[in-house]
UniProtKB/TrEMBL annotation:
This is UPF0291 protein L21TH_0273. One of its GO terms (cellular component) is cytoplasm. InterPro entries: DUF896. Keywords: Cytoplasm. Its main location: cytoplasm.
């Protein structure tokens, strides 16, 4: 998963977006961080699915 600092930054930007809005630079950063988060999430989820063994 992503380092805690990146997750904290994603959450900070989300709160700021709701309260006061983001600058164009912050919007780009938020988009990049979210894409990075989703990529890591999908990779981790795929590993979990691949490790499942179905026993009949």
């Amino acid at each position: 998963m992503l380092p805690k600092e990146k997750l904290d930054r994603i959450n900070y930007l989300a709160r700021k977006a709701k309260k006061e809005g983001l600058t164009e630079e912050e919007k780009k950063e938020q988009k990049r961080l979210r894409e990075e988060y989703l990529k890591e999430f999908k990779k981790h989820f795929r590993r979990q699915l691949e490790s499942i063994e179905i026993v009949d």
